[in-house]
Design brief:
Blueprint lengths: L1 H17 L4 H21 L15 E4 L6 H9 L5 E10 L9 H10 L11 E13 L2 E10 L2 E9 L9 E3 L8
Length: 178
């Protein structure tokens, strides 16, 4: 279903670029279309890319026994204890790591001794776990970014139910230690 909605939005976006302005009827239809697209984008577009294709950012709970030894070894070397199942997803990093999302994570990774820059534009694997640590009173989740089973970054975030913003921390952040 998401694919068909994404594809429809991609086609609608392409058609809007081809349509020439011509009278109030077209202007009103365009305005209505933009309003509808605004509502749909809030609900659907996080799962679509700019061409109307589904993103590959899918996660699923995975038993800890199925997580790469490389990931578990890195967490152990950092002294990070996990709780519960892992979630693993594939994600394609932006070509330039300078947006509000990956730009911040890239900086936090550098603070932790990692560098995402060589992997810009590439598909990576993200493995995440809830952890018992907290930062500023907020419970945390650890994220391990890998490429071809090599750890390229580890960072911490507040959990989904948190209202802290931005809520992204380096693994070396002193205020986030047990």
């Amino acid at each position: 279903m998401l694919f068909s909605v994404c594809a429809s939005l991609g086609n609608l976006n392409s058609n809007n670029h081809r349509r020439e302005a011509g009278g109030k009827g077209n202007e009103m239809k365009t305005r209505q279309t933009l309003i509808i697209l605004g509502f749909v984008s809030v609900l659907v577009l996080p799962g679509c890319d700019s061409d109307g294709n589904e993103n590959d950012n899918k996660s699923e709970p995975v038993d800890k026994n199925e997580v790469s030894e490389t990931v578990l070894d890195e967490l152990e070397s950092l002294g990070i204890k996990t709780s519960g199942d892992a979630e693993i997803m594939q994600s394609t990093l932006p070509e330039e790591l300078n947006d509000a999302n990956w730009g911040l994570k890239s900086e936090v990774c550098k603070e932790g001794g990692y560098d995402l820059d060589p992997y810009a534009g590439q598909t990576v694997t993200l493995t995440s776990f809830d952890i018992p640590q907290s930062c500023d009173g907020e419970l945390l989740r650890v994220w391990v970014v890998t490429k071809n089973d090599v750890v390229i970054c580890v960072y911490l975030t507040v959990r989904e139910d948190s209202s802290a913003a931005p809520g992204v921390y380096s693994v070396n952040d002193e205020q986030c230690k047990e």
